Structure to design on (262 residues):
């Protein structure tokens, strides 16, 4: 049986913290939350402008229906897209998305990039080959102290996602996106953690300003965390660059909630 090794099968995607020299291209994750029906257009844009390996799943925005009606947004149905792109094209891709997908308009969606620690070697080489002549300026590699946003992920039992979102709103979150999920073979983890998770779950994705992240997570944990019937599991991950109305910031007024329904 072939042995897997980190050095031979996976390519590290970041350089050491603080290093700001140029280096070859690597893959980066682009997350896009767009209106359902815009996903094929988004995928075509990515491939016309650069190259991307994209996967998508169906989601639902969490803005209240009255807010949607007030803002003239026809639907809260969303598509969540995960795309691996060349890091050298990151800034240009986000600008292209903002302009051609009209993400500066209310209700059109949001895109943001997430740093990767490693990626499959074949994928990394394939994506890097599309921009082989380009290098990444180390000065443009975002350091943790420069990041303004985090992606909060809350996995709760089916039927409790609205409760979790309301708690998040009370702490400053403007909106989120929900995707359906299932708990699979978690018996061992449940035994060690002393918990019991529902099989049918919903995943709530909230893009949060970093300054508000802990308050939002604490509010959701208190209302829909592991010690509640919702049995919520929470974690967050760093976000580098963002485009879209939803990236403007947190809000408490209903019209701003609608703007950030992604």
């Amino acid at each position: 049986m072939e042995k897997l090794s980190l050095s031979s099968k996976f390519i590290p995607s970041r350089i050491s913290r603080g290093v700001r020299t140029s280096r070859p291209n690597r893959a980066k994750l682009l997350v896009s939350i767009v209106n359902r029906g815009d996903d094929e257009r988004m995928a075509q844009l990515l491939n016309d402008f650069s190259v991307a390996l994209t996967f998508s799943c169906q989601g639902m925005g969490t803005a209240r229906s009255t807010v949607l009606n007030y803002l003239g947004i026809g639907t809260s149905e969303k598509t969540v897209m995960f795309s691996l792109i060349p890091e050298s094209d990151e800034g240009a891709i986000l600008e292209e998305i903002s302009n051609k997908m009209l993400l500066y308009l209310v209700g059109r969606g949001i895109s943001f990039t997430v740093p990767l620690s490693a990626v499959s070697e074949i994928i990394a080489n394939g994506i890097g080959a599309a921009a082989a002549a380009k290098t990444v300026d180390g000065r443009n590699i975002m350091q943790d102290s420069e990041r303004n946003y985090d992606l909060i992920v809350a996995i709760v039992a089916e039927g409790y996602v609205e409760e979790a979102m309301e708690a998040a709103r009370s702490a400053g979150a403007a909106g989120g996106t929900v995707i359906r999920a299932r708990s699979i073979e978690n018996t061992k983890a449940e035994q060690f953690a002393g918990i019991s998770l529902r099989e049918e779950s919903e995943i709530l994705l909230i893009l949060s300003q970093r300054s508000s992240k802990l308050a939002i997570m604490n509010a959701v944990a208190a209302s829909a965390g592991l010690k509640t019937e919702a049995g919520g599991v929470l974690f967050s991950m760093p976000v580098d660059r963002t485009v879209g109305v939803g990236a403007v910031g947190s809000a408490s007024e209903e019209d701003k909630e609608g703007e950030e329904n992604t």
About this structure: Residues 1-8, 14-18, 66-74, 248-262 have pLDDT under 50 and may be disordered. The chain is about 30% helix and 30% strand.
